[in-house]
# Entry
Amino acid sequence: MGLIDALLAAYAYLVANFDEFLGLLAEHLALVLVSVTLAIMIAIPMGVLATRNERAKSIVMSFGNVSQTIPTLAIIALVFPILGLGFLPALVGLFAYALLPILTNTVAGLENVDESTVEAARGMGMTENQILRQIQLPLAVPVIFAGIRTSAVLNVGTAYLAFFIGGGGLGVWVISGISLFNTPQLLAGAIPGALLAIGLDSLFGFIEGRLSGESMPEQSPAAG
Amino acid sequence: MTKTNTTGTTEASDTMIKFDGVTKIYSDQTVAIEDISFEVERGTTTVFVGPSGCGKTTTMTLVNRMQDPTEGTVYYDGADIQELDKVDLRRDIGYVIQEIGLFDHMTVGENIATVPELKGWDQSRIDDRVDELLELMDLEPGTYRDQYPNALSGGQQQRIGVARALAADPDVLLMDEPFGALDPLTREELQDEFLEIQERIDTTILFVTHDINEALKMGDKIAIFDVGELVQYGSPREILHNPATDFVKDFIGDDKTLKELQITPVRDIMSESVPTAEQPTASAVTETGEDSTAALADGTGDQYVTPTDTVDIALSRMIETDTQSLPVVKDDDVVGTITESSIRAHQSNGGV
# Structure
């Protein structure tokens, strides 16, 4: 069976089972979006906290690093004995996995803001909160968003494993497709995932563009 | 130490900033400055000069409380700054740093508007002020207001840095090696521009540099620092004439007479020997004076000086053209004469 035939067969499978596909896609998207959104809400404040206090930083960063060293499959498996089967445990696993990229990028983004820029802001009479909100966070937006995009793309892939603990999603088709040597089913589950990853990446890229406006001109810095 | 009492600033104004026995020791036990006392008069420019690590920047940052003294007291307009609110104090003090520190995510206009925004000015007042400052800095508001700092040259960026520091009409302006990172040509351009601006504002300026020439050029008063110590505080002339220590002598260098000529304007030495000086027509001068401005039109334009030129330029032109006197010309009128002998006489009188 050639590649074209396989793709056609996968397309036929998708059309024939379109309602089921929409259900799985919705589950998959929900897993990714909810876990990444939660990760953003937790990781950015944690990152801010980390840059303000050396001790907090070492704790936060080691916590984030640990969550990332656990293999993708294991993190799903680790949640299962604690929370059992289903959507929620899968969500928790994905959330933990999405934390680190956002966290490290928040810390890096804030720390990369030029010390002299912060000094100028402080010297002009900005309070620490104003410096954070008006200077450091806006300047860190591109780096923080790079972390968010990494997390989102990573989690589109990781969410396939949610199937193992009954979390649903496109993994249902892919993994049963592998077990049953059902290539059309496998591809009908896998290809939309790849497109989803690209789509989410573009979406967050678009949000980033809106957030920072035209504030980051293309010119490279003329002076150091 | 005997001081000749020849300060350049004559207005009897009150004290804006006062250091009283101030010592700053950093948490790693480095003694940045030790027991420093001096006063800065309102509306003057005081330059802190000295080698790297001498404590000049530390001294300056004690004024806007970027640092707090370990011992002693700093007074701002009569008040102990430890009792003033840090944030309010900083909003009343302009701050320019060598690294400029513009906010790259904001436009030039937004950068300049920072302190007025913090102070809660009306939007229309802020807009007017931004345009006014851009014009003061010789940057066309329509062209530059909405640009981002990254698109500008180093010299333009520091002009914005100065404009931003002046935005809310600060009583005091702190400048930490503001022109230090610029190329020599741009630096001189900005120095000259800033001297002009300085005439127009009545801000008390503290200026840090490691360049003695810049200090002599910019300062009404100069404070020379050696490692942690204020070794001499006085007018450029006092410092050139009576260096307090060998360190100061070395720091000034061997060409102190030339340096002095560089800071003496022609108007201090010239004799107003042209009776028609006040008359606004050049023809009147031609009729009466031997120092005719007619020569200007004949292409020998270098054979005169203006009252605001410095004496070293006059001397240089005398040597160039092998003469002993030059006409002093202002707005196409001859207003006086400067001679080599008057320069020598001035110097041997101790520059008074």
